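[Automated response] Your request has been received and processed.

Submitted sequence:
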Amino acid sequence: MSRTFTRERCIPWLFSQAGVQLDEEPEQVAPSVDGLRARIPRPAALGLRFTGLASLFAAAVVLMTGARPARAEGEATSASARTITGYTLGGLGVGAFVVGRRIGRSAPGLAVLCAGREADLDPESMTALVGGARTRMAQTAWPEGQVWLISEAPLSDERKAHAAGLKVRCFTPVNGRITEV
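Generated structure:
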């Protein structure tokens, strides 16, 4: 069954090996074929979020040390410098979070078709599956994305050539590991 293949092989491989993030639960799009929507994460988004967190932490430390009242006239200047530094670091931290989130949301979309052994992958049904996957991606207002086909059964050379013509990346288990063919 496709559900078993999707849950036990397809989804764990997408997380661990392909490094994609799923946006929703799988839905059955054809007999023995499940469709998933995912995003290919951008490394810059994670880096900006981490930088934002570190900047907000630094701002909190600076503001906590700058909140003490000045004891002498000479310390008033350093206290205001600490306050300005804290506000600047806080603003940069919030800005990094916003930009990181925006970059993460503009990551390329990915439609994954997990096909079980019983799936019918003749040229007409494969064209319909790929067209449906691209339509679902367009409905979610994603940027132009990719379509991947992960098949539990080996694909013939004609199927691979047809998938290449449709601009679909094909993956199948080879020696127990899912690899691109």
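Summary generated for your ticket: The CA atoms of residues 25 and 107 lie 19 Å apart. The chain has a mean pLDDT of 82.
If you did not submit this request, please reply to this message.
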